[in-house]
Amino acid sequence: MSTAGVTALPDGGLKNPGAGLITLDPVHTALLHGLDELLTGLAERLAAPEVMGPPLLSVTGLARLDYFRNFPHLGVSAGRFAPDAFDGLAAGESPGELPLRPTGHLLPSATCYGLLLSLEGRDVGEDGLRLSATGRCFRNETHYDGLRRLWGFHMREVLYLGTKDGAVDHLERGSAFVLETADRLGLDLTRATADDPFYDRGGSRAKLMALDPVKHEFSAPDGTAIASVNRHRNFFGERLDIRAGSYGPAYSACVAFGVERWVHAMILTHGTAEQALDRLRAARA
């Protein structure tokens, strides 16, 4: 990979169409795509074929997975204009003042949800199943901050379903890959147990998290979490009737990468997008 032929916009910056929304210039775009390609190395190492998840998720399906109990603040709903708004739209009325009709779907907030929902009722066998995908994800946030916290962003995930031991192995190999890749890129990451704010700290789920953490994050020096390893136990296997042969309900686990956040970490470490792109080129040589 080279910066040759990759030219920054005249002002050298990123265009910001609105809060949490950013248009990447050619250099940042090349950096994002190059990093995503590098992160596919985990999928190649684990023989996880590339798939593409759905662009919308059923509200009914997400409710069965306790999504709204755990993440009531994150959902971005997909709506369509009601038929009684068509005449107003055609007459030039402001779209923001015309009625929307719910579709019963949300934009994805994580790549794995669409993959898991698509596997409902399936038997993945005791050898298990691995899949890899990059999805465009969307989250309502209390605030937005450049590439660190966006309304819409790219998330690459490598998902495993199978046995409990297989899930543990998946996360151990995923963690090793994160640290190895960070070292190749000159990134200094710290690993810590995730402190998810949606948990009621006095409730049973909070106590379970404290006793048996299911999520660890890898963060850049400024505290930006750029990758995580997530152990789902057999929760999705039970809720979606995904089985692992005679083993019973499948255990699942995923390794997730926030690609724009990797771009942020590279620029934070190496100074400019051009310098970060050159370091990425050297790491892939």
From TrEMBL:
It comes from the Bacteria. InterPro entries: aa-tRNA-synth_II, aa-tRNA-synth_II/BPL/LPL. Residues 42-279 form the Aminoacyl-transfer RNA synthetases class-II family profile domain. SUPFAM superfamilies: Class II aaRS and biotin synthetases. This is Aminoacyl-transfer RNA synthetases class-II family profile domain-containing protein. It comes from Streptomyces qinzhouensis. The lineage of its organism: Bacteria, Bacillati, Actinomycetota, Actinomycetes, Kitasatosporales.
